[in-house]
């Protein structure tokens, strides 16, 4: 766990990562808040807060008396969300810094391709 960020946010991100990586399949059941609480040694209310973030976002849904499940289309929605986030968090600042240094988009592409093959 990262001490600098709220635990419930980290739980939500962990579930998202498991959906993106295929560990949790669409329509598959998610561990209960009590299981998260036990695993991370936290209050069940904190675990529930993380799960509820994803329920509110439509990534998870509740089946009364059964548990939480991954909603259909969740992986695709998460990929779109993370791509937008990647663009704003990484690509825009990268382009801004490249512009300050006089690096053209073509040169930047070449640098990235070179790193990708290393």
UniProtKB/TrEMBL annotation:
Membrane spanning residue stretches: none
Domain HTH gntR-type: 5-73
PROSITE patterns documented for this protein: HTH_GNTR
Gene3D superfamilies referenced in this protein's UniProt entry, alphabetically: Winged helix-like DNA-binding domain superfamily/Winged helix DNA-binding domain
InterPro entries: Tscrpt_reg_HTH_GntR, WH-like_DNA-bd_sf, WH_DNA-bd_sf
Xref: Pfam families: GntR
Keywords: DNA-binding, Transcription, Transcription regulation
Superkingdom field: Bacteria
Name of the featured protein: GntR family transcriptional regulator
Organism: Conyzicola nivalis
């Amino acid at each position: 766990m990262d001490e600098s960020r709220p635990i419930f946010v980290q739980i939500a991100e962990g579930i998202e990562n498991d959906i993106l990586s295929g560990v949790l399949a669409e329509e598959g059941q998610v561990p209960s808040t009590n299981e998260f609480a036990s695993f991370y040694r936290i209050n069940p209310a904190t675990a529930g807060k993380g799960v509820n973030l994803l329920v509110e976002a439509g990534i998870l849904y509740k089946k009364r008396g059964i548990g939480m499940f991954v909603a259909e289309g969740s992986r695709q929605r998460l990929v779109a969300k993370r791509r937008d986030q990647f663009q704003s968090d990484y690509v825009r600042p990268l382009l801004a810094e490249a512009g300050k240094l006089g690096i053209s988009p073509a040169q930047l592409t070449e640098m990235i391709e070179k790193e990708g093959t290393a």
